[in-house]
Design brief:
heterodimer; A: about 160 residues; Rossmann fold; four-stranded parallel β-sheet; about 15% strand; B: about 170 residues; alpha+beta; 2 domains; two-stranded antiparallel sheet; two-stranded parallel sheet
């Protein structure tokens, strides 16, 4: 059996308690988790055209988006999260980093975000988010949204 | 976990990347993950990390979901078998062209493994020293793994495949 034991869905779909948000905020660019994000950002950096706008259905509270925006000063990033507190914390981080003109976090659901995507999106990036979906039905819904967003925005064309 | 770079029927390319945890084989890995990656983190972060591991899907499950939407084989994907619990970087490339993130499987030399570990170590200290990549592969079994070609080399190297490593 893949994984060797039964999957246990996350207790909550959204990280919306202050201690959760604070913990992720403090760890987003530290520790092994932070290194994942940093390497991911380095990998993303050279691979895409200057008009790239990344939409990401779920995110650390703005840290990864800010890091990525720092790597590429010619891109705009729109991120989505289910938790109002994560969005609020993330946008505060982004404002503090002076990136509010290029990075914006919005309230959004990764199973229904296609309509919210900017028309000139070049890449959809879904980082450490899929496992938050409660079942494979929602995973398929999320991936369908990616496909739909791609068709509607011409993502990557 | 998955890299996607799909050429649609109408010529539009849908470009997306999905990177996520893979549920480990052994229940005890959650403890190993805590020890190795978030020992000093706040307890809320540790609990969330553990919950994430337990909630992760298998590579096969995600691949099946992606294939169901985009069609079998339309999206390239890979599950890491190297450097579990740590991010890695491999000098390996399967790109098809400019701005095309890609990856493929093959065999990885000892030199490439050492390079990956050195890069991962450098990344931990100074991410700006990580070589740039043109290719991208991601995923893990409770770790994360990238692949690409150092921008300076300019030529594709061999792909990689390591023996499964039990977690």
């Amino acid at each position: 059996m893949p994984g060797g034991f039964a999957r246990r869905p996350e207790p909550n779909s959204a990280m919306d308690t202050p201690d959760q948000v604070s913990a992720f905020d403090s760890q987003a660019v530290r520790g092994a988790d932070g290194r994942h994000l940093l390497l991911h950002g380095r990998c993303l950096q050279p691979a895409h055209s200057p008009r790239w706008t990344a939409g990401r259905p779920r995110l650390r509270p703005g840290r990864f988006a800010a890091f990525l925006a720092g790597l590429r000063r010619d891109i705009r990033i729109v991120g989505y999260d289910l938790s109002p507190l994560m969005v609020e914390t993330g946008n505060a981080n982004i404002r503090a980093a002076g990136l509010a003109d290029r990075v914006e976090l919005r309230l959004g659901d990764m199973t229904s975000f296609a309509d919210q995507m900017p028309r000139d999106t070049d890449l959809i990036n879904c980082l450490f988010a899929v496992h938050h979906l409660p079942s494979l039905d929602e995973v398929r819904q999320c991936i369908s949204q990616i496909g739909r967003a791609g068709r509607e925005t011409g993502c990557g064309s | 976990m998955h890299l996607a770079d799909r050429q649609g029927g109408a010529g539009n390319r849908v470009r997306f990347m999905i990177l996520d945890l893979v549920r480990p084989r052994h229940f005890s890995t959650r403890r190993a993950m805590q020890r190795s990656s978030c020992r000093d983190a706040p307890s809320a972060f540790q609990v969330d990390t553990t919950n994430s591991l337990m909630a992760a899907y298998s590579h096969e499950e995600i691949k099946a979901a992606v294939d169901a939407v985009f069609g079998p084989g339309a999206v390239r994907s890979i599950c890491s078998r190297v450097l579990p619990l740590l991010p890695g970087f491999l000098a390996s490339q399967g790109g098809r062209g400019r701005n095309t993130p890609a990856g493929h499987r093959g065999r990885l030399s000892g030199t490439a493994v050492r390079s990956a570990r050195a890069s991962a170590s450098r990344a931990a200290l100074d991410p700006s020293r990580v070589p740039q990549v043109t290719g991208w592969i991601a995923s893990e079994g409770a770790g994360t793994h990238w692949s690409g070609t150092p921008a300076s080399s300019g030529r594709p190297s061999r792909g990689f495949r390591l023996p499964p490593r039990r977690l």
